[in-house]
Amino acid sequence: MHKEEISTIKTILVVFLGILILVFAQGVSSLIFELQLPNGVVALIFGICYIMISYILIKVCCIKLLNIRMNECYIGKPKVHFRWLICAIILPVSVSAVLLFNPGELIKNNVSVIESINIIVGAIFTVGFGAGVVEEMVFRGLIMKLLEKRWGKLIAIIIPSVFFGILHVVGIKMNIIDILLLFIAGTSVGIMFSLIVYESGSIWSSAIVHGIWNVIMIGGILDISNSYNEKAIFSYKLSTESMILTGGVFGVEASIFAVLGYILVILWTIYLIKKKSILKGNI
Q1: How wide is the angle at C-alpha 45 spanned by C-alphas 41 and 49, nearest 5°?
Q2: Would you kindly state where each structural domain of the chain is located, as residue ranges?
Q3: Predicted model pTM
Q4: How far apart are CA 227 and CA 214, in angstroms?
Q5: 227, exposed or middle or buried, with CB in 10 Å at 0-12, 13-18, 19+?
Q6: CA neighbours within 13 Å on the CB side: how many for 148?
Q7: Which regions in the chain score pLDDT beneath 70?
Q8: What is the pLDDT of residues 82-141, one digit of tens each?
Q9: What is the Cα–Cα distance from 194 to 153, expressed in whole angstroms?
Q10: Are 246 and 238 spatial neighbours (Cβ–Cβ below 8 Å)?
Q11: Which has the closest alpha carbon to 91: 224, 208, 7, 244?
């Protein structure tokens, strides 16, 4: 398939279809929360259903509407390069460590062993790899490949990244500074994930980075914010009121420390991509 074979209207429609797939799969999978099951079991089933439903719908979209294979959308067999697994751990741990060096109060909440297990399982399968894998399949798989075929790689990187940032604004009451912080953070992290896909040739590397980031940063195991979180296992309440340091309403994922982390990974990924291009040119 060549770029000109996909019309602008069809491209836009499929982009919105991709977002609709994400919303629909999440809604259907969320029905499991209505069942009287242990929280950990519900989280596990939700994560599996969310990924499977999204995968099936994206596959149908690729084959029936776009006439392309899944691996053309960087959604092949699950495979993660070791360097991205290491990056997936170092990035959130480093950002968390820097945040913990800021003045604040660490509180160990009174949660039972069972409650702690439920929180950890929920972190892994709901906000972690459920959200991480699905969002990467939609934004860095289906949508990015479609835009790449229509307008090239630069647009394919920028547009999904901007959409990714905007999507996180929906449903949250924010002032202009909050929106600006989230837009910068959401766009930069989207660019980071996109470049990881191009460097590795697969959404699975970006999914592992995305998933582990979510587990550590927003999974409820260690919550770092400017307010006390009684639902987390550990809550670190930052003393500062600086929105740049705390990330404002959205939280530390939009803080200056997180954004600097995204930028460092972006620069490293660009270096790896250029290094690969040089090596190919010498062969």
Answers
A1: 170
A2: 3-282
A3: 0.91
A4: 19
A5: exposed
A6: 17
A7: 1-5, 164, 168-172, 279-283
A8: 999 999 999 999 999 999 999 999 999 999 999 999 999 999 999 999 999 999 999 999
A9: 10
A10: yes
A11: 208
